[in-house]
Each structure stands twice: as C-alpha cells, then as structure tokens.
Amino acid sequence: xxxxxxxxxxxxxxxxxxxxxxxxxxxxxxxxxxxxxxxxxxxxxxxxxxxxxxxxxxxxxxxxxxxxxxxxxxxxxxxxxxxxxxxxxxxxxxxxxxxxxxxxxxxxxxxxxxxxxxxxxxxxxxxxxxxxxxxxxxxxx
Length: 141
Hints:
By secondary structure, this protein is an alpha+beta fold. The chain is built from five helices and six strands; from the N terminus they run ααββαββββαα. It has helices at 3-13, 23-26, 43-55, 118-121, 127-140, and strands at 27-34, 39-41, 59-71, 74-84, 94-105, 108-116.
C-alpha cells in the first residue's frame, strides 16, 4: 500500500472551489493532466480547469476505493465521483466510477490521467443525446 497515494487521495478529496491554491502542493509546475474530455499542461491551466469544473457543479465529491502502487513513483487510484449539476439528471446526484493513473516524484504528481465513461459522466444525462445513448445501449444488450 502506498502512503503517498493515500495522502494524495485525502488531500485531493478536500479540494473545492475555494481552495484550489492547494493544487500546487499536489502537482508539479509542469503537470500533464488528461481525462476523456480534456487535456491540460502546466499548473496554471490545471487551476483554470478545476475552477471551471467547480463553477459548473453544485456538489462534487470523490470517494477513493483502492490505492495501487505499481512501482516507486507510479500508481493507480480507483474512485467514485459524485456530483450534481442543475441542468443534468434533474439536479439529482450522478455517480461515475473511474481510475487515475499517476506518476510522481518528490511527492508531487507530474502526470495524471483519468479513465472513466464520459457517457455516464455527461452524455447520458443530456436530454436528446441521453435518449439516443439509452436506445443504443438497449439495442446492444
């Protein structure tokens, strides 16, 4: 078990729109961050990404389930993100499972890649697109 990953997850889960200055304690200045919807480089752009993310949701929480260190400075976190958005799912909570691949040195992450189902996060909750995705899923099962 990785103490770094546990500490990182605890500190990451404490982030909100009012304390994004704490990102500098988690990430290096040259952070490369990517998820299925975005890619950003550098700490200033990461701060902007998170500021935009928190500005568009009414609630955002992470629950971390696993802390898998592969080798020194490389590991994975498995998590569930729960959020509310006033225009998605009638404002009710949306939960999405995902995994983060992290590379770090000197107790700061320099590469962070998230893996999750973008449909479950967003597209399935859009009025027209959500119906189309639901229809397609039913046809495939």
